[in-house]
Structure formats: structure tokens, C-alpha cells
Amino acid sequence: MKLPLLALLTCLPCLALAQSQPSTNATVTPVAPAGAQDHQRPPHGPPDPAQILEHLTKALQLTSSQQDQIKPILEAQLAQMKSIHDDTSSTDDQKQEQMQALRQDTAKQIEAVLTPDQVTQFEQMHPPHRDK
């Protein structure tokens, strides 16, 4: 008899709270964990070259010389991505192929600046996409 009474007493605050809450179908906006905004970009937005360079610098321990060489590569990639995106004469499939080719070309240009150990790390970070 004590157990059901104890169970009832522990559930009463929950029941009272549930009844006191208005029963609307309001949506709840998820809250990002602390610090999660540091490296977010809008969905489907272009990558930020500065954030990518910062990420690569930390992950690969890039020298300042390497950073100076990689920065214009990333900026050129962004400009080309915008150009591909804004091209109204290409189909979505064509744009997707052009973006994939641009990513591969950018990766090759970045790898040319890296040491062999950094290339290995970079390739592990960005494995090549496989055809379906």
C-alpha cells in the first residue's frame, strides 16, 4: 500500500504541471548547444573561406605561408560556386556536376600547398565521393 501512495505522490507534481500548461500546438524551437553558433552558416549557403581556413589551420597545423597560399584558393572557389549557382542556363544536375568538379579541383590545389603528412590528414578529413 505504501508503494502506490509513494508513486502517486511523485507523479502529482507532474500531473499538476501538465494540467496547468495551456494545450496549444505551439512549436518548440530547439536551442543550439553553447558555442555551436561559432561555425554555423545558413543552410545551403556558400562556405565561408575564413571559417574553412581557420578549420584547416587548426586541423592541419598550417603555417602562415600555407594559409597565405590557401586563402585565395578558397576565395576563388567561393566566387566560382556563386557563379555556378547563379547560372540560369544550366540544369540542377549540371550545376551539381560543376560543383563536384570545383570541389575536386580546389582540393587538388590545396593539396599542392600541403606537406605529405598534411595531405594524408586532409584526405582523411575529405574522403572522395563515390559514384552511386
Provide a brief overview of the structure.
The protein has five helices and no strands. The chain is mainly α and 132 residues long. The chain has a domain at 46-115.
Tell me what you see in this structure.
- This protein is mostly helical.
- The protein has a domain at 46-115.
- 65% of the residues lie in helices and 0% in strands.
- It is built from five helices and no strands.
- The longest helix has 23 residues, at 64-86.
- The protein is elongated.
- The N and C termini lie far apart (63 Å).
Question: What layout of secondary structure does this protein have?
Answer:
Layout: H1 2-20, H2 49-60, H3 64-86, H4 92-113, H5 116-125
Helix pairs in contact: 2-3, 3-4
pLDDT under 50 segments (min length 5)?
Answer: 1-30, 32-39
Sketch the major β-sheet.
Answer: none
**Proportion of residues in extended strands:** under 5%
Amount of helix:
55-70%
The helix/strand class is mainly alpha
Q: Note the gap between the termini.
A: 63 Å
H/E element sequence: HHHHH
Instruction: Tell me, briefly, the overall form.
Output: elongated
Number of alpha- plus pi-helical segments: 5
